Amino acid sequence: MSDNRPSLLNIKSMPVSTALQFTTDVLDPVVNGDTFTRFEFQPKGFLHPNSQLVVKVKKSGTAGIASSSFPFANVGLYSLIRRAVLKTADGTTICETDSLNELLGCKSQFVSNSANKEREQYKTGRQVAYAPCFTAEKGQEAGGYGLSNHRDYDERAAGGIVTGHVREGLSVEEHLLNDKESSFALSLHDLFPYLKSGNQLPLFMMPRVQVELYWTDLVSDGRICSQTDADATDPNSLFPVSSVSIFADYLFYGSDFMADYRQKNNDLTFSYIDYRLSTNTVTATTAGEALVRNVGGNGMQVLKAFAQFGPEATTSANKLLLGRYNSIGPSTDGADGGRTNLTSNLFYNNEFLYPQSVVNSATHFHHLISAEGAPAYVSREAYCGEGNCIVALAKHNFMGLQQRLNLQGKNFWQGFKLIDGKRLDSKGIDLHTQYIAGAGVNTTQRVWVEILRYARLSDGRLQTFYS
C-alpha cells in the first residue's frame, strides 16, 4: 500500500485540491419592517458561518441628536436585535434566542480590548477597551484607567474645535456618530449558536433556510446611546434601520465532490447548542430575600447557564454608556467602600451544583469565565464595583458621560457550568439567589440555559430534537 504522507526530511511539492470555490451574494430581505425582517438563502453550496448582516441606522433629522448619538459601547449595534431565529421555510426551527441583545451584553465581555479597539469599533460598534489615564502632563503617573480609542482626551474645560473635539474628555471615532450613517457588519455566528459551534449549513441539501430578526422596539431606550428619550411623536428622536442586507458567503467544491457528498451523506446528524430564556422581576421590597425560582431545562441536557440582574426597561437607559445591556453589581455597604454579596447556587437532579452556595464576588467571576471557557476582559471594579480606579473627573468623561458612574459594577454576570452532563429530571433547574442589586432598585433577572440539541438531515428533510 502506497503511503501518501509527505516526507518530513525531504520537503517537496504535495498534491493539493484547488476545487474549492468561494462566492458572496448580497441578499435583500424578503420581508422588511420596523419590527421584523426575514431573509432567505439560496439553496446552493455550504453557508460559511462568518457571513455578515450589514446594518445602517437612519440619521436623525435633528443635528444635535445626530452628532451626539452612537452605538452602546459594549454591544454596539447588536442592541438592535431583540430576537433572532434560524429556521427552514417549512417551519422547522434550528435555533432561536430571545433577548439576544441582553445576552450579548454578557458575551461581549469575552472580546479582547485590542480586538474592540482595532476591529470591533469599526465593524460592530463595540468599543470597550481600557487603558491608563495619566493625570500629569509628562505621562508618568496614571490616576486611574478608562476607555481608550484612537483619539486623545481633551482636558480643557470647554473642549475645543481646534483639535477636532467638540466636548471635554474623550469622543468616539467620527464614523460611530449617527450623523455619519455608517454601515456596520454583524457576524451571523454571533446571532445563531448553531453557526457559533462551527457548523456549516449544507444549503444544497436542505429545504430553503431563512433568517428572522425581531428588532428592538423603535420607541424604546434600547436602540442606541442618545441623550434624547425616544418619543413616538418626534421622528427625529427615533433611530430606525434605513438599510439591512446579508452578505452570504457560499463554499463550493467540484461538482463531482458535491454530488458524491450528497449521496454518501443523505442521513446526517449533528449537535449544537441553543438557549432558553427565563425572566423574573425582582422588586426593591423583595431584594435581599432568599429567592428560589425554576428556570427550565426539564428533560433536557443543559450544559451551562448565564444569569444577570438587569435594569428595568423604563430607566432611560439610552442615556447610559452601556444602555440596559448590563448586569447590576452589588450595592454599597457602609462608608468603607464595601459591597453587599450575592449568594447563589443551582439545584437540579436532587442536588446542588456547589456544596456551599457561592458568596464571594471573585468566585462568581471565576465561575463565569469557567462557564464560557475564555477570559473576561473586565476589571474587578467593572465586574462587582469593588475599588475606585475607573476615572471619574470631568476631563475623562466619555462623550460627556462620567466613566465611573457608567462602568463601575455594570458587568456582574454569573455563569454556571453543569459538569456531570446528565439529562435533567422533570423538575428542571432551580436558581437560588439572595441579593441586593444597586441601591435597592427594581431589577429584571434573566437566566439563559444553554441546552444541547441535535439536527437530523435525511433525504432533504431537516428535523431537530433535544438531546
What would you note in describing this structure?
The protein is 13% helix and 31% strand. The chain is of the alpha+beta class. Strands 1, 4, 5, 10, 11 and 13 form a six-stranded antiparallel β-sheet that branches. A hairpin with a 4-residue loop joins strand 6 (81-88) and strand 7. It is globular, with a radius of gyration of 24 Å. The chain starts with 20 loop residues before the first strand and ends with a strand.
Topology:
Elements lengths: L20 E7 L3 E2 L3 E5 L5 E2 L4 E6 L5 H4 L14 E8 L4 E6 L1 H8 L5 H11 L6 E5 L7 E6 L35 E5 H4 L1 H4 L4 E2 L6 E7 L25 E12 L2 H10 L2 E16 L7 E7 L5 E10 L31 E6 L2 E2 L8 H12 L7 H5 L18 H5 L6 E4 L11 E6 L8 E16 L2 E6 L1
Antiparallel strand pairs: 1-13, 2-3, 3-12, 4-11, 4-13, 5-10, 5-13, 6-7, 6-12, 8-9, 14-21, 15-20, 16-19, 16-21, 17-18, 17-20, 21-22
